Amino acid sequence: MLTDIMPKLNLKNILSIFKKELVFTLRDADLILTIVLLPMIVYPLLAIGGAIFVGQAKSSVEKAEVKVVLPEILHKFEQKLATQTVTLAFAADPQKHFDELKDAKIDALVEIATLSADFAEPHATESLGLQIKYDRTRWRSDKASDLIYDQLANLREELRESRQKARNIGEDFFFPIRIKEENIAVPSKMGGSMVGDLLPSLIIIFSMLGAFYSAIDLTTGEKERGTLETLLLSPVSFNEIMLGKFLTVVAVVMISVSINLFFLGGTFKFGLYQMSRIMSVKLMVETSWTSIILIFFAMIPLAATISAAMMAVSFMARTMKEAQNYLAPIISLLILPSFSGSMPGIDLTLFTASIPIVNLSLLFKAFFVGDWSFGMYLMTVSASMIHAVIALALAASLFRSEDLFDRSGGELAHLFYPVASTCTAPTARGALFIFGVVIGLAFSVGELLQNNPRWSLITGLAMLQLLVILAPPLVYLLFYRYRLVPTLNLELNRLRLGDFLIVPVMSLCVLVWIMQYSLIQNHFFPAPDELNRLFIGFFDVAPVWWVFVVGSLMAGFCEEFLFRGVILKGLQRRLGIVWALIISSCMFGLFHITPYKVVSTGLIGLWLGYLRYRTGSLWLSIYGHAFNNAVALALVYAISRSGAEAAGQVGKSLFVPWPLLTGSLFIFWFLHRRLSNGGQSSTEK
C-alpha cells in the first residue's frame, strides 16, 4: 500500500514539514516541561525520597514491638522464645484471645493443634503440634508471625538434637538427603533481572506518553486551530504532509525516551545500591555501548508504531478533547503487554517476537539479563518494522479520507433523530460504540449467563448469543430506524444456489491453512489442557443436537449480524474495505478473549468478511460461519469419543502435508473466480 505512493513523494517537502513541525513542537513550554524538566527533577527526588522512605520503613518495622500469646505449656521456654521486640504472654487456652487478635490488641497467637505433654523430654517420641494465627493485612501481625515462627523453629531444632544425642543416633539418620542451593547468577545478572522487570515497561510507557500529546496536537489540534486546512492548500501532497508530521512525532518520542532513560539510569543505579544493602546481596547492571546502541535502534520502529497508531486515532477525532478520550483507554490497554518482561513463563521466541509491544518488552529484558542473540534481535526488530508500516498505512488512509474535517457528531450526538433514509450503513463511531457495549456486557453479564447453575453451559451460551451479541446491534439499528435488509445486505435476490456449494469447499481450504498456523503456534505457544477440555466438555453437559444448534447456527447468525453486518459496514464507510476487513477481523479475534485463539479466529473473521463483501450478502457469511463452526464441533466431538490416547496425538505434527496445502490454495483460487461478485463499492453510504 505504501509502495504505491513512494514514487510521488518529495523528500525535500517532507523534511521541510518535519523541520517546521519539530521546531514548533519543541517551542511548546508544556512539552519541554514534560519531557525535559520533569525527568531532571522527579527522578532524583524519587530516588532520594524512595531511599529515605524504604530506610525509614525498614527501621520502623525492625524497632516495632509486637505481642504474642503462647500456650502455657511453652512457658518454661520463655527465655529461648523471647526477643527484644517480641512481648510474650502465656495462656492456658490462647484461643480465648482470638477476639483480641481480630481487634489488633495482640499481634499473633499460637494454639495447640496436637497435644504432647512430654515433647521436651529427650526420650519422647511424640510431637507437639502448634498453629500460628495472625492477620496478614497488618504489618505488625505479619512481623509477629515471622519472628515467633523463627524462634519456634530454633527451639524445635534444639529439642531434636537432644533426642538425637539421647538415643546416640547420628545426624545423617534424620537427613537421608541433604539439599543445598547455589545461585550461579552473577551480581550483574541479578541486577539486570530486577531492572529488566521494570525498565522495559517504563520505556514503552514513555513512548506512549511522548506520542500522546504531540500526535493529538499535530492532527486534531491543527484542525481545531484551523491551520491544517491552510497547510493542505500548499503545493505539498497529502502523503508528504502526513510523513512530515509522522517523523515529528517519532522524533519527539525518541527525545522523550532518551532523556527519561538518561535520568532513570542514575535512579536505578542508586536504587540497586539501596536494594543491595536491604537484601545483603550485591546487585549491579552491566551494559555495553553495543547493547545501548542496539536498544536505541530497536526503539525506533516501536516509536514509529505507537506514533502512527496514535495519529490514526487522532485523525478520527473532531476535537482535542475527543482525541484524548479515544487515546486514554488505548494507552491503558497497551500498558499490560508492556509488562510482559516481568511475567514468568513468557520468553522471547519466534512467536512472541511477532507480537507488538510484547516483543520489545521481552527483548529489552533479555538485553539487561544478557540472554539475547543477534538473530532474535533481527527477528524482533523486523516484526516491529512491519507493525510500523501497517500502522502508518492506516494513518495515511485516514488522513486522506474525505471526512477528515467532518465535525458532525454522527448518530450518537443527536440520539432522538432518525438517520437519513438513504443511509444504509452506520458510522464507524457507531460501530465502535456497539462493539464496546457488547464487550462490556460480555464481561459483566456473560459470566452470569454461561455459569448459572440453573441451566447448562450450552444454554447459557445460547442466551449470551441472543442477549449480549445480537440484541445490542439490533436495538441500535431499530432505534435509529435503519432499514435492516439493505443495511445488513439481507436481500434474497443476491443469493445463487451455486454459492451454497462453493462456500463450504472454500471454507475447508481456509481451514487447512488456519490449521497449519495453529500447529505452528501450538508448538511455540501451546494452549493449556483446561481450554481443550472445556471444548470437549460441551458434549458432556448437553445433547449433541443442542450443541450444534447453539455453536453452529445460533453463533453463526448472531456473530455475523454484529461483526459483518454492523461493524464491518460501519468501518468500511470510513476506512474503505481493506482496513475495515483487517480491523473488524482483529476485533472478532479479540472478542473470543483467549489469547490462544485470537489470531486463528481473526483469520476466520477475515475470510468471512471477504465472503460478505465479495458476494454482497450477509446470508452467505452466516452460512460460512455456521459451516466452519459445525466442522470444528464435529472434530471436537470425534476427539471426545476417541479416548484420551487418540486426543493426545492431536497437534503432535508441526506441518500439514504440503500436497494438501498447495491443493487447497489452488482450489480456493479456482472457486474464488466462480463465486458470485455482488460486492458493493468501498464506501457505502
Q: How are the secondary structure elements laid out?
A:
Layout: H1 11-26, H2 29-63, E1 66-71, H3 78-81, E2 86-91, H4 98-102, E3 108-114, E4 129-134, H5 139-166, H6 187-225, H7 227-232, H8 238-279, H9 289-316, H10 320-338, H11 358-369, H12 374-399, H13 428-444, H14 446-450, H15 457-479, H16 484-488, H17 497-524, H18 529-536, H19 538-541, H20 544-575, H21 577-591, H22 598-615, H23 618-642, H24 644-648, H25 658-672
Parallel strand pairs: 1-2, 1-3
Antiparallel strand pairs: 3-4
Word description of this protein:
The protein has 685 residues and is mostly helical. The protein is 67% helix and 4% strand. It is built from 25 helices and 4 strands. Helix 3 (78-81) links the parallel strand 1 (66-71) and strand 2 (86-91). Helix 6 (187-225) packs antiparallel against helix 8, helix 8 crosses helix 9 (289-316) and helix 15 runs parallel beside helix 20 (544-575).
Strand content: under 5%
- List SSEs in N-to-C order: HHEHEHEEHHHHHHHHHHHHHHHHHHHHH
What is the helix fraction of residues, given as a range? 55-70%
Quick one: biggest sheet? 4 strands, mixed
Number of strands: 4
Rg value: 32 Å
Which term fits the overall shape? Answer: globular
Distance between the termini: 24 Å
